[in-house]
Amino acid sequence: MLQHRRGPLVDIGSGDGRIVIAAAKEGFPAVGYELNPWLVWYSRYRAWREGVHGSARFYISDLWKVTFAQYSNVVIFGVPQMMSQLEKKLELELEDDARVIACRFPFPHWTPDHTTGEGIDTVWAYDMSTFRGREKRYKQLSHVYGLEGCHLETA
Ligand SMILES: C[S@@+](CC[C@H](N)C(=O)[O-])C[C@H]1O[C@@H](n2cnc3c(N)ncnc32)[C@H](O)[C@@H]1O
Q1: Which residue from 27, 64, 75, 150 lies 20 to 30 Å from 34 (Cα-Cα)?
Q2: Which GO terms describe its cellular component (predicted)?
Q3: What HEC string does 2-65 produce?
Q4: Residues enclosing ligand 1, CB less than 6 A?
Q5: How remote is the CA of residue 140 from the centroid of ligand 1, in Å?
């Protein structure tokens, strides 16, 4: 889902670091934020052992306390309850060139640009440029039809 893309990558809730390490091996400057310190220490050790400690960095951090504005590639494998709030956070923070990859649990309101896999292995890709284009068209139409204030998906 991130083939042929460049730029910094973040895995939100990086667990044992496997996504960040794989991304670093593909040439991305990659960062993981993870609440569990043991997993962060283990991830750093893995990155060092696999020779990518220069381009794979891990921080002990709560995802709600950091900004993802600087990342153009965002990966998330979270839990369903967080997806709605995370969607709003990413809408506010990400640049138009960002692509977001959601594993297992999709975002509730965004429409994916690409989907792959099936069942619990389904992965969705969302391009912020598409989302912003739809948002802009909606704003223009809502002005014409007097729908200001309605949620994009509801309207
Ligand atoms: C399903 S695992 C995904 C791990 C990894 N991204 C992967 O795909 O293998 C979700 C991870 O998110 C972490 N997590 C949950 N809430 C978090 C939060 N508020 N801030 C940072 N990490 C969090 C958990 O500790 C867990 O390691």
Answers
A1: 27
A2: mitochondrial crista
A3: CCCCCCCEEEECCCCCHHHHHHHHCCCCEEEEECCHHHHHHHHHHHHHCCCCCCEEEEECCHHH
A4: 11, 13-15, 18-19, 33-36, 39, 62-64, 77-78, 103
A5: 38
